[in-house]
């Protein structure tokens, strides 16, 4: 009988700083430090501008929790590079997950704040770690409930690459090949998502 | 730890209450969207099993279930044969054989939801049983107070009226005490349960004393049949002594809010003016009821059976 206190890990498990129980004892290596994260977000800002040239109806939508500080930084970069003032939204995907009925304990809901309509805008979803593609699928379904964007593009700071759905990430900070038994975590100071940020790979060991 | 069923606030601890309230705050956002529906409980079936008529609570559960994309079926047996325990369980078992993912139960007899829960595989949510508990009402009241006041800890809450027969009062007493508020009740002596103070509340027969310094004043609905002599001499006397109006409300804090579980007997528990205007928050309570019940259905309905039973 599975113990409901430790929900089984699932393909859509999104370990971020929101899971303070993530193992610290296991093998842990930093794959992106704060400087590397900042550099990646500057490069992505340039790529976004290049790809959407002449397009000012962009809308950054963060997938919480990890996507939130990244989307804010990206918005700041876009402002300083091109003067674009873009709205930044937060879209929780939990109610759209495809594994809810498999789990005993329901995951906590996170904040959704969509300050601007999505109709006719190119929405750029911002996530910390892309892996199976299931979170992005959920985010796209959620987005469609808010209206009809003219396009959807995806930013991921880290792409682990174990895709289970035909989802493409348009802007990748860094490709990090990982074992399925490893966790990739974006975290900030003292378990928050305040800078300095870093991305670590933690091996789950036998029990996580 | 949130268990399989939601039978009463008495069974929950502070962390459970906070988790349900936080979930409800997130669910409120869904209600502000143009498309007020999320796919979370798609393909799940929720049965509203109401042995006692209740349009408001049933509708609130129905809207909550539909906003989560569940199929909601209303079943309201009214025949007098169903008052027998055997037939109640028989009805419940028949429903259970149709494999619902949650059964929402209201019954005029305390303890019926528990007995049904013991007989069923599906999670049971108590929508009010006799004078026992009405957990979702208390939870939506807690949510309303939390959002009005920004906290519950340290608040002073006065519940006025027919505490003796009120499941709303019981559930609220448990809820507010568990979240750190001070709770007082005020009623004629005939409507105060004898051992009420053992719950940790203070009982008053003077409304003025009970209201002194209150942040929240909650008026309870009084059934008309209790107003004709057995418990109180007359409607007029009850309303003169315990009916809230702006004059009596002056004894509470300046920024006190007024609540009522509805439907209000206007001019009895609340003056007409108070029933409709600030500082009463009655329509906020109704509005919050939908988000709160969405949260309850999200947390309790449609989980894997084994996990839900252990949890």
Question: Please, could you describe this protein's structure?
Answer:
The complex is a heterodimer of chains A (208) and B (311). Chain A is α/β, with parallel strands linked by helices and 208 residues long. Chain A has a domain at 34-178: 3-Layer(aba) Sandwich (Rossmann fold). Chain A has helices at residues 34-51, 67-82, 134-144; strands spanning 28-32, 58-62, 88-90, 122-130, 151-159, 171-175, 182-187, 198-203. In chain A, α1 crosses α2. By secondary structure, chain B is an alpha/beta fold. Chain B folds into 2 domains: 9-133 and 287-310, Rossmann fold (3-Layer(aba) Sandwich), CATH 3.40.50.1370; 135-282, Rossmann fold. In chain B, α3 (85-97) crosses α4. The radius of gyration of chain B is 19 Å and the shape is globular. Chain A binds chain B through residues 1-5, 92, 95-96, 100-106, 108-113, 141-142, 145-147, and chain B through 1-2, 19, 22-23, 26-27, 29-30, 33-35, 37-40, 44, 68, 298-299, 302-304, 306-308, 310-311.
Quick structural overview:
By secondary structure, chain A is α/β, with parallel strands linked by helices. In chain A, 22% of the residues lie in helices and 23% in strands.
How much helix, percentage-wise, in residues of chain B? 40-55%
What distance lies between the first and last C-alpha atoms of chain A, to the nearest angstrom?
17 Å
Which percent band covers the strand fraction of chain B?
5-15%
| Helix/strand structural class of chain A | alpha/beta
Largest chain-chain contact?
A-B, 26 and 28 residues
Secondary structure class of chain B reads alpha/beta
Give the termini separation of chain B. Answer: 7 Å
Q: Work out the helix count of chain A.
A: 3
CATH topology call of the domain at 34-178 in chain A: Rossmann fold
Helix content of chain A: 10-25%
Mean pLDDT of chain B: 93
CATH homologous superfamily annotation of the largest domain in chain B: Aspartate/ornithine carbamoyltransferase
Low-confidence stretches of chain B: none
Q: What are the secondary-structure elements of chain A, in order, as H or E? A: EHEHEEHEEEE
- The CATH class of the domain at 34-178 in chain A is identified as Alpha Beta
Give the neighbour order of strands across the main sheet of chain B. Answer: 7-6-5-8-9
């Amino acid at each position: 009988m599975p113990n409901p206190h430790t929900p089984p890990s699932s393909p859509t498990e999104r370990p971020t700083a929101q899971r303070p129980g993530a193992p610290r004892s296991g093998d842990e290596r930093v794959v992106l430090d704060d400087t590397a994260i900042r550099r990646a977000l500057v490069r992505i800002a340039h790529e976004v501008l290049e790809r959407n040239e002449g397009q000012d109806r962009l809308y950054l939508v963060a997938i919480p929790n990890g996507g939130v500080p990244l989307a804010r930084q990206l918005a700041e970069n876009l402002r300083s590079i091109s003067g674009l003032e873009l709205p930044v939204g937060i879209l929780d995907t939990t109610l759209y997950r495809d594994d809810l009925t498999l789990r005993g304990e329901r995951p906590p809901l996170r904040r959704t704040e969509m300050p601007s309509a999505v109709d006719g805008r190119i929405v750029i979803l911002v996530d910390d770690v892309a892996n199976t593609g299931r979170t992005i699928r959920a985010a796209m379904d959620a987005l469609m409930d808010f209206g009809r964007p003219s396009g959807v593009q995806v930013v991921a700071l880290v792409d682990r690459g174990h895709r289970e759905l035909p989802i493409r990430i348009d802007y990748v900070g860094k490709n990090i090949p990982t074992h399925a038994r490893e966790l990739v975590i974006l975290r900030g100071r003292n378990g928050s998502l305040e800078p300095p940020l870093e991305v670590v790979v933690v091996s789950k060991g036998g029990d996580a | 730890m949130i268990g399989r069923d939601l039978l009463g606030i008495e069974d929950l601890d502070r962390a459970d209450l906070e988790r349900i309230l936080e979930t409800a705050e997130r669910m409120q956002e869904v209600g502000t969207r143009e498309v007020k529906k999320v796919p979370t409980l798609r393909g799940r079936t929720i049965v509203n099993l109401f042995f006692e008529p209740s349009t408001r609570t049933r509708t609130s559960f129905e809207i909550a279930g539909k906003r989560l994309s569940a199929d909601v079926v209303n079943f309201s047996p009214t025949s007098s044969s169903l008052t027998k325990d055997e037939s109640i369980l028989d009805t419940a078992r028949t429903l259970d054989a149709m494999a619902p993912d949650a059964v929402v139960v209201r019954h005029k007899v305390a303890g019926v939801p528990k007995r049904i829960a013991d007989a069923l595989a599906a999670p049971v949510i108590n929508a009010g049983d006799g004078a026992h508990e009405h957990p979702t009402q208390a939870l939506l009241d807690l949510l309303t107070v939390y959002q009005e006041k920004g906290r519950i800890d340290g608040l002073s809450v006065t519940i006025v009226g027919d505490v003796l027969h009120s499941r709303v009062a019981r559930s609220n007493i448990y809820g507010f005490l568990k979240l750190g508020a001070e709770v007082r009740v005020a009623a004629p002596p005939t409507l105060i349960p004898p051992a009420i103070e053992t719950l940790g509340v203070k009982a008053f027969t003077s409304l003025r004393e009970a209201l002194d310094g209150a942040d929240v004043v909650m008026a309870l609905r009084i059934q008309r049949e209790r107003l004709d002599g057995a418990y109180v001499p007359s409607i007029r006397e009850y309303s003169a002594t315990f009916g809230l109006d702006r004059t009596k409300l002056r004894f509470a804090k300046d920024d006190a809010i007024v609540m009522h579980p509805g439907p209000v007997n206007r001019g009895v528990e609340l003056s007409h003016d108070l029933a409709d205007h600030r500082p009463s928050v009655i329509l906020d309570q109704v509005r919050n009821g939908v988000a709160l019940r969405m949260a309850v259905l999200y947390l309790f309905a449609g989980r894997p059976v084994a996990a839900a039973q252990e949890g």
